[in-house]
Amino acid sequence: MSDAIGYLGPKGTFTNIAVDALFKNEHSMPYQTIPACFDAVKFGHVKYAVVPLENTLEGTVNLTLDYLIASKTLKIVSEIIVPVKQHFMVHEKNADRWEQVETIYSHPHALAQCHHFLSQTMRHAKNVTYSSTGAAAQFVSEHPEHHIGAIANEQAAETYGLRIVRSNIHDLDNNHTRFVVLHKNDTALRSLHLPIRGFKTTFMIALPTDHAGALHQVLSAFSWRRINLSKIESRPMKTALGQYYFLIDIEQKMDDILVPNTIQEIEAIGCQVEVLGSYPYYSSEDQQMD
Ligand SMILES: O=C(O)C(=O)C[C@]1(C(=O)O)C=C[C@@H](O)C=C1
After folding, report:
1. Which atom from ligand 1 is nearest to the alpha carbon of 64?
2. What's an example Gene Ontology biological process for this entry (predicted)?
3. The complex's ipTM?
4. β 59-60/48-55 pair status
5. 77 lines ligand 1 (CB under 6 A)
6. How many CA atoms lie within 13 A of 136 on its CB side?
7. 5-84+175-184 and 198-283 share one CATH topology?
8. Which terminus of the chain has fewer Cβ atoms in its 10 Å neighbourhood, N or C?
9. Residue-wise pLDDT tens digits, 218-240
């Protein structure tokens, strides 16, 4: 097995920034899609994989959540939050006439985060989705003959030699994305470079179909123990209409008594409970520059 860190690439994605902050100079390996990152860690081509899970403006990255639910073998072992600043960039050759760019490429989340800029300043341009912001920037750099631009971060502009012609075009300032580190076993991953901000545990819960008020009882199992939830969300089971998994994050790590007892109480109602990970979380904003 390789000790490399797989991530949603190519170089210059926000996921790449997350990897650099968490792992610094460890060997990393870009993959083109989120499912490819899952496969890479599942089949042992890399030791860990880093994928985006949630954004302040756009919410959950459904592809990541669905693969996490489906993959019975991978666990979340760490989390890092990264500020997301989007810039509009073009090839040097097109820098003088950037306002007439005909097509703008980016990841669907990034396009959605820049709705104001796209619908006001660049109303005339066609928006085309790409597998990542970094891949969009790379594509633009390889096609100077086309009048096109990309929405990506500063690192992508540097990596692919593009000129940023409009900075900070995301709709709201407080734009952050949460990335998770996946691994084959559940041993929490401690960063050597960042201070721990706190701990989380993520559950996947399937409710019994014939039990009125089951969700209410699940929530009360957490609430009477004063366990703080930081997220709750439902995803279709993809088996029949109306059947959902509930994904719940709590602000605490797995222990010997409180969390196992909560799980027992929830299982007693007839729910199926799976722990998707119990892990520390970090912020790239805590990095010490050296
Ligand atoms: O395209 C990238 O740069 C990514 O890392 C993916 C991704 C996402 O999936 O949301 C990550 C952060 C930003 O929110 C935009 C795109």
Report:
1. 9
2. L-phenylalanine biosynthetic process
3. 0.94
4. antiparallel
5. no
6. 29
7. no
8. C
9. 999 999 999 999 999 999 999 88
